[in-house]
Amino acid sequence: MTHCRFFRAPARVRRFLLAGVLLACGAAASAQSITLASTTSTEQSGLFGQLLPAFKKASGLDVKVVALGTGQALDMGRRGDADLLFVHDQAAEEQFVADGWGVQRYPVMYNDFILVGPKDDPAGTRGKDIVQALHKLAAANGSFVSRGDKSGTHAAELRYWKLADAGKGSGYRECGCGMGPALNIAASSGAYALTDRGTWLSFRNRADLAILVEGDTRLFNQYGVIAVNPARHAHVKAQDAQKFIDWVLSPAGQAAIADYRIGGEQLFFPNAPK
Asked: What residue stretches are annotated with the PBP domain (predicted)?
């Protein structure tokens, strides 16, 4: 009779093999996800809570969202730390693509910016003209909270101040923070702030703040989506990033955007090219 003896690996070998299996499993799981660098406005509005489960159902892919200001999101794309971007500073986005960091920019949806401030509006800004409102705010040295974070909202705000051509007044201060924290500061201190409407509608700590300026065509706020260029960063998941882009531009993705509401009010309006 032949007796077979089974080899039992030492504990340290078994631990090494187990670590290898876990690493392989982690790599497999990672392959089923993409990293999306996006704005705090889209994340804080709750939009991704609507979009991402629907995209996963359609594609099987998870999306890890890193919420930053648009400028920081673009920097993340330049470093190759994200697979795609969902941002809202068209000039900066187009430059990102022109410089070879992105494959192509696609318009995906829009909403608008609004000026909010104390209901009694001590600087007299209320109306439709954002440039005139900021001119009055500067003249009154009114308290204004700027994000100051190179976000799309911050870039738009600086454009409006430049058009006002009146300085910013002694009440201007930057928080270097996202839209939600900036609104919290404005609410607690009775200050003015520029915000996207989506974040405002989802913001609950309004205190005495109210919408004072809206409806100016210059307050239009366009969002774009861009895949990071694999020619610059070979490790990015370009094909999976394109799957997200194709889905969010499709009738199903555009409908998911249009269907997202808070209190019955639509936050974003899809406008992908037909």
From this structure: 27-251
The Cα–Cα gap between 85 and 97 comes to 11
- Full-model pTM: 0.84
DSSP for 184-221, please give it. HHHHHHT-BEEEEHHHHHH----TTEEEEE---GGGEE
Looking at the structure of the chain, the number of domains it has is 2
Domain residue limits at 60:
34-110+221-270
How does DSSP assign 118-183, residue by residue?
ETT-TT---BS-HHHHHHHHHHTT--EEE--SS-HHHHHHHHHHHHHTS---TTEEE----HHHHH
In a domain, 22, yes or no: no
Residue with tokens 């700027």: 146
**pLDDT for the residue numbered 3:** 45
58 CB-near residues (< 8 Å, 6+ apart): 247, 252
What radius of gyration do the chain's Cα atoms show? 23
Q: Can you tell me the distance from the alpha carbon of 119 to that of 96, in angstroms, rounded to the nearest whole number?
A: 39
Phi (first) and psi of residue 7, to 5 degrees: -80, 130
pLDDT over 90 percentage in the chain: 84
pLDDT band at residue 44, thresholds of 50, 70 and 90?
A: confident
Which one-letter DSSP state was computed for residue 46? T
Between helix 47-59 and helix 251-259 the angle, nearest 10°, is: 150
196, 223 contact by CB (below 8 A): no
Q: pLDDT tens digits, residue range 136-173?
A: 999 999 999 999 999 999 999 999 999 999 899 999 99
> Could you say which of 219, 237, 255 is where a domain stops?
219
What phi-psi label fits residue 28: left (phi over 0), alpha (psi between -120 and 50 degrees) or beta?
Answer: alpha
Q: Which CATH number characterizes residue 70's domain?
A: 3.40.190.10
pLDDT band, very low/low/confident/very high, at 1 (cuts 50, 70, 90): very low
